[in-house]
Design goal:
The chain contains 6 helices and 6 strands; from the N terminus they run αββββααααββα. The chain is α+β, with helices and mostly antiparallel strands. Helix 3 packs antiparallel against helix 4 and helix 3 runs parallel beside helix 5. The longest helix has about 100 residues.
């Protein structure tokens, strides 16, 4: 069996595609009808199908490569029973050449629907966590405020899965419409210009079954695509809901911080008023304290035998000589400490790159 090169090329391709070709005999009549289908890679399947129908011998050859399509074996054996070792087999009448493709697409459609149901359940679970759903509302399932970031991540992941699934479903819709057209083309090659009513009843019945099956698949695929778009819209609504919940939580937190800052500012103002009172009292009593301390020293004494009753010791200058240098030393140490702190701050800013070094 000669296999087109294009079939071998698409095996390493994850994108979907389809191709039809016709080979002709020497007399110019159509000889073989070829179909090549590459299903896009998805969580369900990553398969390629090559189908050839010989118009002269009315024999079909179908080559299937892929995953999770092996379950179609039973359905294919039922539609196309093989002769047993005893030579006895039941005949189900003539089958349409594209019945094998129809069975494979039906199986793929079932896998797509299974994935769609899983995504629908996932969307409902996420809606239940936000508490905003037209289907599920259970207060006990709502996510706590500290779970909103994780919930937002899950919603984005689900949105990505839906986008991937939507792409695959769009391919499915286009594939079935393409197969409907190829079904009509193949019937034109087989029966010429005759309409179906001019075909033997058994063959006409087989073709009608395949045609109606393709029509049903087209309707189901279009409806499923609408459901996927609806799921994406629901996820986007939940993204907005979670974003608003996070904003509300941040707003409440900011209000609480502002309230705490207001209380701190009030307490600071009250402490400041108290310190002002203490400072005022200190200023009032400071002169009296100084005078009392000064005259309480041994340099000043009162004597009854003195004409004035008050006597100043001749060593009073020691107090001045000690006090003034100590005061200057204290003030100088304080100023030096301030300059050191300023220099240290500038060094830290330069090391952190907060301030450009002078050239």
């Amino acid at each position: 069996m000669r296999i087109p090169i294009s079939f071998l090329v698409v095996l390493a391709n994850n994108n979907g595609g389809h191709q039809v070709s016709t080979t002709y005999a020497n007399d110019g009549a159509a000889g073989s009808f070829h179909l090549l289908i590459k299903l896009p890679a998805s969580s369900s399947v990553n398969a390629a199908i090559y189908y050839r129908y010989d118009l002269t011998s009315a024999r079909s050859i179908c080559l299937i490569l892929g995953t999770r399509l092996q379950g179609m074996k039973t359905a294919l054996q039922q539609a196309f029973p093989c002769k047993s070792l005893t030579g006895n087999h039941q005949s189900h009448g003539p089958a349409s050449p594209l019945q094998v493709i129809n069975i494979l697409v039906l199986g793929y459609e079932a896998l797509m629907e299974s994935d769609r149901q899983g995504l629908d359940i996932r969307v409902r679970e996420l809606e239940a966590k936000t508490g905003m759903s037209a289907h599920i509302f259970d207060e006990s399932l709502r996510a706590a405020a500290n779970e909103h970031n994780a919930l937002l991540k899950d919603l984005h992941v689900c949105e990505g899965q839906l986008a991937f699934y939507e792409r695959t479903q769009k391919f499915q819709v286009g594939l079935i419409e393409w197969l409907q057209a190829q079904h009509e083309t193949l019937n034109h090659f087989r029966f010429g210009a005759r309409e179906l009513y001019g075909i033997p009843p058994a063959e006409r019945s087989a073709e009608e079954i395949v045609r109606s099956s393709f029509d049903l698949l087209a309707s189901l695929s279009r409806e499923r695509l609408e459901q996927v778009c609806s799921l994406r819209n629901r996820i986007r609504i939940q993204l907005n809901v979670v974003a608003n919940l996070i904003a509300q939580h941040d707003g409440r937190t900011n209000i609480a911080i502002a309230e705490a800052s207001r209380r701190i500012a009030f307490e600071t103002k009250r402490d400041s008023d108290a310190m002002k009172t203490i400072a005022a009292l200190t200023m009032v009593f400071l002169p009296a304290t100084f005078v009392a301390t000064l005259f309480g020293m041994v340099f000043f004494t009162t004597e009854s035998d003195s004409p004035s009753g008050f006597r100043v010791n001749s060593l009073w200058w020691i107090y001045v000589a000690v006090t003034i240098p100590l005061t200057m030393l204290t003030v100088g140490a304080w100023l030096g400490w301030l300059r050191w702190v300023r220099w240290k701050r500038m060094q830290d800013e330069e090391s952190l790159g907060l301030k450009e070094k002078s050239q």
